[in-house]
Design brief:
472 residues; alpha+beta; Beta-Lactamase; Heat Shock Protein 90; five-stranded antiparallel beta sheet; 16 helices; 15 strands; 50% helix
Amino acid sequence: METVWKDKFYMAFRLCPFIMTIHSFPDMRVLDVNEAYERRTGFRRDEVVGRTIFEIGLWTDHEAMTRAFEKLKKDGKIYNLEFHFRNREGQDFNGLASSELFEGPDGQRVLSIIEDISIRKRAEDSFRESETKFRRVFQEAGIGMLIGTLDGHFIAANPAFCEMVGYSEEELFDRTARSIIHPDDLQYMEQRLKSAVDDGAKFYQVEFRLVRKNRSVVWTENTASLVRNPDGTLQYLVSGVVNITGRKEAEMAAANLGGRLIQAQEDERLHFAREIHDNIGQQAAVISLGLSELRRSSDSKETREKSIQNLQSGMLVLSEDLHRLSHQLHSPKLEYIGLVPAINTLREAYEKQGVEFDFTHQDVPRDLPWKVAVSVFRIIQEAVQNTVKYSGVRKVDVHLNGSLAEISLFVHDSGVGFDVEKAKWKGGIGLVGMEERVKLLGGTISITSGRTSGTSISVRIPVREYPLSAAA
């Protein structure tokens, strides 16, 4: 039985994936090594048996070897001693050694097991190097950088971000992101973050305002990476924050300029509309009445009466045309009773021309800002006019929905469609005008068209306007 156990021990010794050695003690002469020793060191068993570890020279740190030998001599064992060795080919390795003394048939022996941890050490060193590089990039970056939790607590903030908001990193640790995000942007920010987390996104980008320590406001563009645990839950966020206040001020200045140009255009249209309606229309009516009197007092009846009737009919047509032009230039209903009645008037006018104008609306505020109302009205005018002229059909669907926050418009026809970009490139001023109106109001517009799907125009325009506060 003892022989069987010796055979099993020797088999385990030889086949163990870790380096195993047996030395005599205290001279540390090699009595046996296993196959893992031969593979890792490059020495065959017959080359090392009978030699001491000092003669073989695998250990590169002689002081560490001396301390290990003294500890083994004192305590009789060593556990998880990390050391460095070099194989026969000059390759460096890291090992984790455990040794223990035991009594052999002719004196003390040392049984040692050594795990090669070189790969793990290289990974740890690489991780430390990467961590050092990231810390240097994080601290020295020219843009603001943050590391934060899902609930808005700060883990780290670099100097650029601290300078941007006026708080030190230590002060930010005592605050949350909610406390420095502009109140008007907070709900929007939380919705964007929730959507990104729920959708499993790796990153998201958003513009919002931060309130600095001195209560001034700075516009920022935030690109956040969502770092997740292996189970998919969010671990933390790493964000790059850029100050875009200057850009926002320039955009708003351009928008204000464009808005003033549009307003000037609308004022001019209103002026001509009133002139045509109040002056030219009345003059045409006076002429018509005068001709009627002339017809009644005329001596030559047949010829003069026919001419007078033709003139009177022409003046009536002129009056009607001028009246219609007045409404096209500026709808009084749009100014005095609101957007929906103005669109209904436009619908009635087109239906008289044989156009099927299907208009539905829901929750449209009566007191919309003038810029929003007139822009929506002009977009509908242009869209319906394009349908009648180019689509090959005389039916258009217009859907208008509103809320306190935004107006959404959808216009669709089932006509032949067209190449949108090509049309704009060839001078499609109407399409470009739609886009410019929406852009100046901070909204979005999508125009899609196809030979079989018709043309669809989708518009979203914010109702509220938030002035840009001055940044420090």
